[in-house]
Design brief:
The complex is a heterodimer of chains A (377) and B (390). Chain A is α+β, with helices and mostly antiparallel strands and 377 residues long. Chain A has three domains: 114 residues, DNA Polymerase III, subunit A, domain 2 (DNA Polymerase III, Chain A, domain 2); 120 residues, DNA Polymerase III, subunit A, domain 2 (DNA Polymerase III, Chain A, domain 2), CATH 3.10.150.10; 120 residues, DNA Polymerase III, Chain A, domain 2, CATH 3.10.150. Chain A contains six helices and 26 strands. In chain A, strand 3 and strand 4 form a beta hairpin. In chain A, helix 3 crosses helix 4 and helix 5 packs antiparallel against helix 6. The longest helix of chain A is centred in the last third of the chain and has 15 residues. Chain B has 390 residues and is an alpha+beta fold. Among the domains of chain B are: 56 residues, DNA polymerase, domain 1, CATH 1.10.150.20; 105 residues, 2-Layer Sandwich (Dna Ligase, domain 1). Helix content of chain B is 41%, strand content 21%. A five-stranded mixed beta sheet of chain B has the order 5-6-1-7-8. A four-stranded antiparallel beta sheet of chain B has the order 9-12-10-11, with helices on one face. The termini of chain B are far apart. The chains are: A alpha+beta (377), B alpha+beta (390). The interface between A and B is medium-sized, with 27 and 22 residues. Strand 26 of chain A pairs antiparallel with strand 13 of chain B.
Chain lengths: 377, 390
């Protein structure tokens, strides 16, 4: 293999795929990045057997070929090379990769590409197409709600349901639930359901950038895999097996108090409260006081710490229904408010021990259910 | 339907346990308690009681009163083990056991066939055969009368040996049984109340029972009607299998009155830690910190302060306690006893779940297992690896 690439492109490509490298695997080759010539371009791939990322970069190919390069070494080296052309030449017999750029001349010991697990070659026909920006927003609005605890693997994933022209993503960690809908460009013939690891979706959102390009999602039948294809990047992930909880019944279908506040003001109040609620239980109390003819409604967000002190913030609100005192994990509140893009947000509550429902005002496609904290008794 | 309640009281429990260790004590005048100059008698044998020794008496006075008195130091582990074994025997008969102290409990055997007296005999024999401990029983249709019955039964036995009494009060005979007893035998009647009752020419429980609610309310406020009800032998309280603590506290009597600020602080630090440990063990938090100071002249003050939010951590408890101490202790004024307590107990805030999450059960199972190991093999038996010294 002999090829030349621009340092900038190589660094970008390595940065994208290196997230799937598995540095501590028992399989040494998984700590490497597969580099292969592919129809006039250079293909870079990494996998940890659950998540695989492939990226194509422009290159001038002189000799076809492939090898696997230790990811850490290669990435560190390339990041320090000058922003110029990088010439690479592989000695097939020794698997020694010579990398030259400017005044720099490096030899890296590689592992034969034969040892690298085969990457899935997707059949992109029949895939679902989304706008990258829409998919990215969907992911960001649900993925933080997935559990990080491996005790219940299915909750570390996002349930993706496609039916007709509607796609739904849902994630829940047992304390909160996020549900986001979106419309597809064209309806699907077969309904589809899969639990995709939250980690894979986060990586996808990270790679996707803010472009207006399209992304294709394919779930090949019987393979237990999902593949996302962007212009120059492909991400494949194992699906999570298991039954996702029936979340529809968790969503409250009524409320006693509906509090509408400025998303930004509420978020800032939560961020302040979190400073004081950080240690210990993360608990912040919300005292919702409806207004009357002469006074607007208010929400007092308060948190206390044994060590640092206490904080209260009043936020003006339009309140419908009864006053309520309810406590939440303030990190949970902050995380959901962070992903709501509408200027105002509604919090619907019933009693201090039943779930609250948060919706962006004027957006029907997102909802978040959050379980309160029980103040001792 | 009439309930069948048994009250059990282990006779001179600490002494009985000591006799098991040293049979030569049998029949002798001896007491369990502190030997040091500040020691207090915890329990005394029936022979010692004949000589006027009673529990809570300073050891020094007991020895003055009876120079031959043998004082045995207490060995706490043994008492709680024995107590636990007794409670296990009780629970093998019914799960409805309410332990009210190390040597006392109530049983609700309403659902069992035989009479309370029969069960009392069986239990008394079993506890004697298996553990070598003497016990007395009161049987009645409620807790109040059952407990008084135990006391009456004990008092009616010979004074030189363990009473091993069983006293039953048949249903319907409660008021008649209580009537001749002095008013002081009633729960809630201490020396002060008794004196005020006497001023009203009320001497016996029967006299109290004859009063109208209104009369006693006039004299004693809202406890008045309670007294009348109790005097008539009425008590509807259930046997509670688990007791909810209202407060947690620690007291220390110094071996010599102290004015040493560091010593006081050290004591409070230790007390705070110990209270925190107990709160965490029962998964509780408390908000009101109370200190108790007894000066060298035995006058005692209690002062309290409430935290903005409940805690079970030692530091806020300690800091508040120290603030109270600094406020009410004049340096150089000697302190005999220092107490620290916390009340306003409640369970700590916890995150509610959308559905049952097994993980949290696993966590508490783990904690329960760790607690059990520590209980059985000591605090150091299981620790986090990072707490180990290499």
């Amino acid at each position: 293999m002999k090829a030349s690439v621009l340092q900038e492109n190589l660094a970008l490509g390595l940065g994208i795929v290196s997230r799937a490298v598995s540095p501590r695997s028992t399989l040494p080759v998984l700590a490497n990045i597969l580099m292969a010539t592919d129809e006039g371009r250079l293909r870079l791939s990494a996998t940890n057997l659950e998540l695989g990322i492939t990226c194509w970069i422009g290159a001038k190919i002189e000799d076809e070929g492939s090898t696997t390069v230790p990811a850490r070494t290669f990435l560190d080296l390339v990041n320090t090379l000058p922003n110029e052309q990088v010439d690479m030449d592989l000695a097939v017999r020794t698997q020694n990769l010579n990398v030259r750029s400017g005044a720099s001349n490096t030899d890296i010991k590689c592992i034969d590409a034969q040892e690298f697990p085969p990457m899935p070659v997707p059949e992109l026909d029949g895939g679902l197409e989304f706008k990258v920006s829409e998919l990215k927003e969907m992911i960001q609005q649900v993925v933080f709600t997935a559990s990080t605890d491996d005790a219940r693997p299915v909750l570390t994933g996002v349930l993706v349901t496609v039916e007709g022209d509607r796609i739904t993503m849902a994630a829940a960690d047992g304390f909160r639930l996020s549900v986001r809908h979106s419309k597809l460009a064209a309806p699907v013939k077969q309904p589809l359901q899969a639990v995709i690891p939250a980690r894979a979706l986060s990586e996808l959102a990270r790679i996707a950038g803010d472009s207006d390009e399209m992304v294709t999602m394919v779930i090949p039948p019987e393979r237990g895999q999902v593949i996302f294809r962007l212009k120059d990047v492909e991400l494949a992930s194992q699906l999570i097996e298991g039954t996702f909880p029936e979340y529809e019944q968790i969503i409250p279908n009524g409320f006693k108090t509906r509090t509408v506040v400025s998303t930004d003001a509420f978020l800032k109040a939560c961020k302040q409260a979190e400073i004081f609620a950080r240690e210990g239980s993360h608990i912040a109390s919300l005292r919702v006081s409806p207004g009357d003819d002469t006074q607007t409604g208010e929400v007092e967000i308060a948190a206390q710490s044994e060590e640092t002190g206490s904080n209260e913030t009043m936020v003006d609100a339009t309140i419908e229904g009864e006053p309520i005192l309810i406590a939440f994990n303030v990190r949970f509140l902050r995380e959901v408010l962070d992903v709501i893009n509408t200027p105002n947000v509604a919090l619907e509550t019933s009693v201090a021990t039943s779930p609250g429902l948060i919706r962006p005002l004027g957006e029907e496609n997102y909802l978040h259910v959050i379980m309160p904290m029980h103040l001792g008794s | 339907m009439n309930r069948k309640i048994i009250h059990i009281d282990l006779d001179a429990f600490y002494c009985a346990v000591e006799e098991l260790h040293d049979p030569t004590l049998r029949g002798k005048a001896f007491a369990v308690g502190g030997k040091a100059n500040r020691g207090v008698i915890v329990s005394c044998s029936y022979a010692a009681r004949q000589l006027g020794i009673h529990s809570a008496m300073p050891s020094s006075r007991a020895v003055r009163l009876c120079p031959h008195l043998i004082i045995v130091s207490r060995r706490h582990g043994d008492y709680s083990t024995k107590s636990r074994q007794v409670m296990e025997i009780l629970r093998s008969f019914t799960p409805l056991v309410e332990q009210i102290s190390i040597d006392e409990a109530f049983l609700d055997i309403s659902s069992l066939k035989e009479s309370g007296e029969t069960y009392a005999r069986i239990l008394q024999k079993k506890i004697s055969d298996e553990l070598g401990l003497p016990s007395s029983f009161g049987v009645a249709s409620n807790k109040l009368v059952a407990k008084i019955a135990t006391n009456v039964g004990k008092a009616s036995q010979g004074k030189n040996d363990y009473p091993k009494a069983i006293q039953a009060v048949p249903p319907g005979a409660e008021a008649a049984f209580l009537a001749p007893l002095p008013a002081e035998a009633l729960w809630g009647v201490g020396p002060k109340t008794a004196a005020r009752l006497e001023d009203l020419s009320i001497f016996t429980i029967g006299d109290v029972a004859k009063q109208s609610n209104e009369d006693l309310r006039g004299h004693f406020g809202k406890v008045g009607p309670d007294l009348v009800r109790r005097a008539r032998g009425i008590d509807t309280r259930k046997v509670q299998t688990s007791r909810v603590a209202k407060s947690v506290s620690k007291e220390v009597t110094f071996s010599r009155d102290t004015t040493d600020e560091n010593k006081l602080k050290e004591t409070m630090r230790w007390q705070s830690k110990s209270i925190s440990k107990r709160l965490k063990k029962s998964n509780l938090t408390g908000a009101t910190i109370k200190i108790k100071i007894r000066w060298s002249d035995f006058t005692t003050i209690s002062r309290q302060s409430t935290l903005p939010q409940p805690t079970n951590n030692p530091d806020p408890i300690f800091n508040t306690a120290i603030q109270l101490l600094n406020k009410y202790w004049k340096p150089r004024r000697p302190i005999r006893l220092l107490g620290l307590g916390i009340s306003g107990l409640q369970s700590p805030p916890r995150q509610l779940t959308l559905w049952e999450i097994p993980k949290y059960d696993n966590q508490s199972n783990l904690q329960a297992a760790v607690n059990e190991l520590r209980k059985r093999y000591g605090d150091q038996s299981i620790r986090k690896a990072r707490d180990l010294d290499f």
